[in-house]
Design goal:
By secondary structure, the protein is mostly beta strands. The protein is about 5% helix and about 35% strand. It contains 1 helix and 12 strands; from the N terminus they run βββββββββββαβ.
Length: about 190
């Protein structure tokens, strides 16, 4: 459900489903200013391939342009469960003094009371113990750490989460390229 002002409405996400051949999915970003824009002429259904900078030529008085001004701040970390099996944690936002709200995989197995050991692929020697203290209404988890410095250190470890259709490994020095130029606040 989306909330817009005082109105709420259901959004049919299936309207956004389409077939996209794997070979057409860019695995690395193009240089800034070269992003492509697909334009559909509503009158005749014709397609035009343009660059994003051409967008102003398609906007008219009264159009609404929605900009995402949030930066991706989530961090993906590897983990092991108490029994040694693999898990994955996507840190969403810090909570309170020593916790993170997170998405965990496998979600069903990581109920409150379970313990995890988190680590980053690039720093497997540095490990962090966490306990699942709560499940959120949205299906996430609240992970609690030993103290605030430990919690805060995690914000600088791990990987930027990329969509599953991007299989290329993103070098740390290129993470900024996946941020929107409009990004001013964390939250994506």
């Amino acid at each position: 459900m989306c909330l817009l002002g005082t109105y709420s409405f259901l959004m049919r996400t299936d309207f956004f489903d389409y077939e996209l051949p794997q070979e057409l999915i860019a695995q690395v970003p193009v240089p800034r200013g070269e992003s492509r824009l697909l334009v559909v002429n509503r009158a005749d259904g014709q397609l035009e391939h343009r660059v994003f900078n051409d967008i102003l030529g398609y906007l008219r008085s009264g159009d609404t342009l929605v900009l995402n001004n949030t930066r991706v701040t989530a961090r993906r970390l590897l983990a092991t469960r108490q029994d040694g099996r693999a898990a994955e944690v996507l840190l969403l936002r810090p909570i309170g003094e020593r916790s993170w709200e997170a998405l965990v995989k496998p979600g069903k197995a990581l109920k409150p009371g379970k313990r995890l050991t988190l680590f980053a692929r690039e720093r497997e020697d540095r490990r962090f113990e966490a306990i699942v203290v709560e499940s959120t209404q949205e299906g996430g988890r609240i992970l609690e750490f030993v103290d605030r410095p430990t919690r805060d250190e995690l914000a600088n470890l791990g990987e930027t989460p990329l969509p599953p259709y991007i299989t290329a490994v993103l070098p740390r020095d290129q993470e900024e390229r996946y941020q929107t130029v409009y990004g001013t606040t964390g939250g994506s």
